[in-house]
Specification:
The chain has 12 helices and 4 strands. The protein is mostly helical and 324 residues long. The chain has a domain at 43-87 and 104-219. Strands 1-2 form a two-stranded antiparallel ribbon. The longest helix is centred in the last third of the chain and has 27 residues, at 257-283. The protein is rod-shaped and about 160 Å long. 19% of the residues are buried.
């Protein structure tokens, strides 16, 4: 796919500075950000690339852009910087750990050797566009995107990657296989993660990182999942029922009607029994079953308002009969 940049009308707002000059998209020359000698690669990886037999002998014979693309098509099988099992990082901690890439080296991968070979060719904008839109192999595209990540200004990364964030083409990125990723997920990892398989990308300034995160949230707004509503039965406020307490009860399926009736009947029985006990105590002269025997004795010997006590009445009757 060939793209002509000389006749296309790009906005002049897109500008990137390199060595004091202003380059626009109309210019086919790509700017170089960071260290122009090392391609911003880790020093250990770069040393292993430059000293490897594959880079010094095999890739030295490749002189053109298309020859390197053919080599990528036939030789690249993953995107890690080291071949599987060639680098031993056991027992190393701190700055010598695997993340910083300062520990013992191994066999550098074919992918990173070819990536650095592309850097030595000083690719133009047209050639980089041909890499990231290549239709023969996803690894050709991935190395094109990785070339952009290492060499282009951080402010230009979003413009390069935005239209490919939804790309669903898959590839295996792990040495030895076992981790399938799409082009879109790889680009998101390039933008928002600094680490890539025991090496580090060039750091992105915080303001630019925040701008990209804002653009990402606008492009992919978070999906708010609605909490499922409970399937409760509708309340029945019908006025046809006699008992107002039954209004708003839950349907018979969740609470049996017999249970409701038993509860209401028990409530009414207790209410009526309590009412009868209170009324009988207030309106009758019957003694309570809880009165003590002493009270019962006092009641039996109490004086009658008309005849006096029962013992005195019997004594007076005996005296009156004895006179006669």
């Amino acid at each position: 796919m060939e793209v002509s940049y000389e006749n296309e009308g790009y906005d002049n707002d897109y500008q990137s500075k390199s060595k004091g000059s202003i380059l626009t998209r109309k210019n086919n020359t790509m700017p170089m950000w960071g260290n122009e000698r090392t391609m911003n690669l880790n020093s250990l990886i770069l040393t292993n690339i430059q000293s490897s037999h594959y880079f010094k002998v095999n890739l030295y014979e490749l002189k053109t852009y298309h020859e390197v693309i053919d080599e990528i098509y036939y030789k690249v099988q993953h995107l890690e910087p080291w071949e599987k099992g060639s680098r031993k990082t056991s027992g190393q901690t701190g700055m010598c750990g695997g993340v910083r890439g300062v520990g013992a080296g191994g066999i550098v991968s074919t992918a990173f050797c070819l990536l650095y070979k592309l850097f030595t060719l000083k690719l133009t904008r047209k050639q980089v566009t041909g890499l990231i839109t290549h239709c023969d192999s996803p690894y050709i595209r991935a190395l094109g995107f990785m070339y952009i990540r290492y060499t282009q200004p951080p402010g230009d990364l979003w413009d390069w990657y935005e239209s490919f964030l939804d790309d669903e083409e898959e590839m295996d990125v792990r040495a030895g296989g076992g981790q399938i990723m799409t082009i879109g997920n790889i680009l998101k990892s390039f933008l928002f993660k600094l680490e890539w398989y025991s090496t580090l990308f060039p750091r992105i300034p915080v303001p630019i990182q925040q701008q990209m995160e804002k653009k990402m949230s606008e492009k992919y707004p978070p999906v708010v999942e609605e909490t499922p509503r409970r399937n409760l039965p509708e309340k029945n406020f019908s006025r046809d029922r006699d008992d107002h307490r039954s209004r708003g009860d839950i349907s018979d399926t969740s609470r049996p009607r017999e249970r409701i009736e038993r509860r209401e009947r028990s409530h009414r029985d207790y209410r009526d029994r309590d009412y009868e006990r209170k009324s009988s105590h207030a309106n009758s002269r019957e003694r309570s079953p809880y009165v003590s025997r002493r009270d019962d004795y006092k009641k039996s010997s109490s004086r009658s308002p008309k005849y006096g006590s029962s013992k005195r009445r019997d004594r007076d009757d005996y005296k009156s009969r004895s006179k006669y």
